[in-house]
Amino acid sequence: PAAAPAPSYSPGPAPPLPPSPPPHSAFPPPPYSLQSPIPPPPPILPPPPAKGAAPPHVFGLEKSQLLKEALEKAGPVPRGREDVKRLLKLHKDRFRSDLQWILFCADLPSLIQEGPQCGLVALWMAGTLLLPPNGIPLERLVQVALERGYTAQGEMFSVANMGRLAQEVLGCQTKLLCGGLGSPNRDLVLQHLVTGHPLLIPYDEDFNHEPCQKQGHKAHWAVSAGVLLGVQHIPSHGYTEDPELPGLFYPVPGTPCQPLSLPEEGSEGTVYLLSKQGKSWHYQLWDYNQVRDSNLQLTDFSPSRATNGQTYVVPAGGVRAGLCGQALLLRPWDSNH
């Protein structure tokens, strides 16, 4: 079936301080003429219980706290560029040697989730780019999501609700993509990442946190704020080569970049998303097609979640209606590209 058109950015309320100007784009701004708006938000639920009432039980909290403590002892969080170089050195066989690579990377902080808060943690990470330097406290995101009825204990099974939450709390623009990460959305996503803006992606999480295909049973959220592109030739202006890794290039800050030709959709192993999620300190490089395929098969609610005695907020139409083939582009409220 043909991919559904992506709706237009919906501006949220302006933040109290003017955001910094957007980074230079290597591509012209994408067309938005075919977009339609995000549906209106659901009615606001009654206010939460008065202070002093017991907070909702967060399933998996004890396990996540042990993970958090272990990771905190492991040392400082690496910056994006250093983490990518580590990945390229460790997994040379995964990256085509016949190509040269250009890394576009906006640095994200890391945050380990507590219980099923992967979506809200991913939104918090994205918020540090939308309202630098620190974004909005995670507790505020959780509070508003609870008040609006988007979640029961931190889970987020609706990309549309994630967009509404981002608009309200971060005061940013959102674009809800439908129809998957392939054409016609692929170039839009890559243009967005090259400019340094974040992308929120639901996918099925494998044991090593990479995308897999479990029909939505392992539904998880990641944030991407960078992309590694494999190209035949590096443009002559605006890029510099890494002194330690020949063949790896970066855009020069503050220098206009010569426009790139995006790798064709059918060319394998040429586009990797630089992503983070709430169970690791480290960045991960995921083949774009692997993420696309995982995102497109989110159809069913996990049987183990359905029988664990916990309450989850799932939209009408289930996981298929809330997550399948959808993603969320975020950018500062006055950004034009």
From TrEMBL:
InterPro entries: ACTMAP. One of its GO terms (biological process) is protein processing. Residues 8-50 have a biased composition (Pro residues). It comes from the Eukaryota. Keywords: Aminopeptidase, Hydrolase, Protease. The keyword Methyltransferase does not apply. Belongs to the ACTMAP family. This is Actin maturation protease.
